Amino acid sequence: MRRYIPYLFVLFLFLPVALTAQDAVRVWTLQECLDYALENNIQVRKAKINQLSGEEDLQLAKAQLFPSLGGSVSQGFVNYPSGNNDRNNNYTGNYSVNANWTLFDGSRRRTTIRQQEIQNEVNWLNIEENEDDIQVSIVQVYMQILYAMEAVTITRSNVELSEYQLYRAERLLEAGDISRVDVAQLRSQLSSDNYQLIAAQTSLENYKLQLKQLLELDIEDDIAVVMPELTEEDILAPLPAKEVIYSTALAVMPSIKSSELNVDIAELDVKKAKAGYLPSVSLNAGIGTGHLSGSDYVFGSQLWNSFNESIGLTVSIPIFSNRENKTAVNKAKLDVTDRQLDLLNSQKLLLQTVEGIYLDAVSAQSQYLAAEDQVRATQESAELTERQFYLGLKNTLELLTERNNLLTARQQELQSKYMAVMSIQLLNIYQHRPVDIIY
After folding, report:
1. 20: three-class secondary structure by DSSP
2. Mean pLDDT of all residues in the chain?
């Protein structure tokens, strides 16, 4: 017993380290991935910063309605090198406070305020749009991980079956019931299945890496996902009419609302450009004083005697602006048309996206039903062929053909299953409905 004590000591020494490393692997549900990404995704965070910057721009635009006030202090030194002056050096000082208030500018400032208010709404919608984009990406990658996990399971079971069939074949070869060619073909099939297993595992790790990158995780973070218990109801969930989904998406998708608001901003640009034809009126006022060394007055007297007050009204009337105003108005109108085309393009792109996802969902559900029947049929055929092979009624080629047919049918069933689920969840996102995968 004593000879095992050192080994037990080493085991207990490294056991906490092993448990810590195992605990470091966090298992994520789809909802946890979505919540974490919305909180930590860089593009979403940048969009939020842009929205805060827009709020500052709005406060600046509102401040332009009020008068501005500024002061100035200047000191000067003058040297007279000629000997004709009593004093060769003079010091001067000027002090003033000035205020300016634009009374009328053709509503440019108020139009700018309204534009910035709309732009802030667009910035909020940009946050939602980035959140929608990251949700779409995560749902797609998460479904691909689930597909890859099941693909690994299927491929591994295929390897185990190949190992069993090779073992049985070797026993039959020893009994003289089959040839070495049959055994060689089965051994080759096992090698091929092992290769497919490695490829499936590599694909799974690649999808996990994509999910880590979407979640902005560090390089040392490992990741695992929860395999949901999908039922027939999840896979074959009834879909609303395509027109209903599209009309709902038009009403809730931030990209459409943003395009509509951009049209409003462009129309306000036309109003601002037309204000260039109108006069502007501003009120200005100021107080000031100064002093000059070398005069007969002392410093205090100079400041009082130089003290002055001023007030004025300035009216600027555009008469001829070298076509600047007309060009500005025409270009603003063209920008309105361009923004309207952007809106139309956004609606068309949304329609294409919704139609494509809807078609994928309907097609995948139909393919899943067909694949289920095909798996049942090929499963029965493969089992019969295997029994006949061991009885010497089927050759190796027929056995392997049935096995490959079964593998293909399972992969088709798996692919259509997750394509259907993914398409349903994407349609939920485009309708701003919650992702409803059951865990």
Report:
1. helix
2. 88
Q: What is the pLDDT of residues 279-330, one digit of tens each?
A: 999 999 999 998 777 656 577 777 888 889 999 999 999 998 889 999 999 9
Q: Put the strands of the sheet holding 308-316 in their side by side order.
A: 68-79, 89-104, 280-292, 308-316
Residue 77's SS3 state is strand
d(CA 294, CA 290): 13
Tokens of 346: 């956004």
User: What was the pLDDT predicted at 122?
Assistant: 96
Which residues of 271-359 form beta strands (DSSP E)?
280-292, 308-316
Count of beta carbons in the 10 Å neighbourhood of residue 209: 13
Q: Dihedral sign for Cα 150, 156, 158, 164, please.
A: negative
Dihedral pair phi/psi, residue 226, rounded to 5°: -85, 130
Residue 364 phi, psi (nearest 5) = -65, -40
438: pLDDT confidence band, cut at 50, 70 and 90?
A: very low
Three-state SS for 28?
strand
What tokens does 222 get? 């490992």
Radius of gyration of the chain (CA): 39
Integer CA distances (angstroms), 207 to 61, 136, 196, 383, in order: 47, 15, 17, 34
Structure tokens at 232: 């027939």
Residue 119 neighbours by CB under 8 Å, 6+ apart? 54, 57, 265
Residues paired with residue 213 on neighbouring β-strands, in sequence order = none
- The amino acid at residue 22 is Q
Coil/strand/helix, residue 318: coil
Residues 384-436 have pLDDT tens digits of 998 888 888 888 888 889 989 999 999 999 999 999 999 999 999 999 988 76
How far apart are alpha carbons 300 and 298 in whole angstroms? 6
Residue with the bigger pLDDT between 62 and 231: it is 62
CA distance 416 to 14: 45
Cα atoms in the Cβ-side hemisphere of radius 13 Å centred on 152? 14
